[in-house]
Amino acid sequence: MANEREPAVAGDFYPLDPQELGGMLDSLLSVSPSVQVDGEIIGAVVPHAGYAYSGKIAAISYSYIKRSGKKRFVIAGPNHQGSPPSSSTYSSADWNTPLGTCRVDHDLENYFSPLVEEDSYANLFEHSVEVQLPFIQRLLGNDFTFFPIIMGDQRRYRAEEIGKKMALAGTDSVFIASSDLTHYEPDSVAREKDRKLIEKIYNLDLEGFYLTLAAEKISACGYGPIAALMHYTIAKKGRIIHTGYGTSGESSGDYGSVVGYPSLIAVRD
Hints:
This protein has helices spanning 10-13, 18-29, 51-68, 106-112, 120-124, 133-140, 156-169, 187-202, 206-215, 223-235, 249-252; strands at residues 40-46, 72-78, 87-89, 95-97, 100-104, 117-118, 145-151, 174-178, 183-185, 239-247, 258-268. The protein is of the alpha/beta class. It has a single domain (39-268), classed as Protocatechuate 4,5-dioxygenase, Chain B, CATH 3.40.830.10. Helix 7 crosses helix 10 and helix 9 runs antiparallel to helix 10.
């Protein structure tokens, strides 16, 4: 949400009152992760649903990201609207949340141009990047910069292009792949499908990842950003660690139709 317009989805994804939002995030971030993660943190998979549903799992990823000490981020999310089909950004203005202003990193932008094109429309109603920003603000205040990417075309070769560009940018920033996994399946079905997909992610099996998406008909919305993170991790000779998983049923009580939420961390030794 750029600074010349009102937040497009604020009512859906966080309350406008800064104190209420801050308290909610502090509560979520108070969790103590149980998975040991050693090495330099270079990326993460983070869900992007409403905080009441996916916030607990997102907070697991951010608890590790905080340990990285890094203050630069590339946040890649899917284009839920389907248009435009290219990879786009909105970097002509800084972005606002109820917690303040988030500065766009134009040095990072240079690495992704012209692959990622300026297009304000693509970001107008898209939440997959902006829902991540308050978490980072609660960890770092406004002492950070970020570069947003909205992926319309999420095919493997497009994801690899983003991953290659990220590899050129170095490892002083964290690559956040914003994605939920299976949508609107019974809890047991979603968990089994997502287990199979997560296995491909932490094994860095890009071919198997795309084959599993198709074979299991997994409705992961941000599979392109996840694949880009996988390619980037491979390029940096890193690894991916599965740090958490949950479904919306745990919050809503409706286990008949859930959405799956992943937390995975990319590190290199």
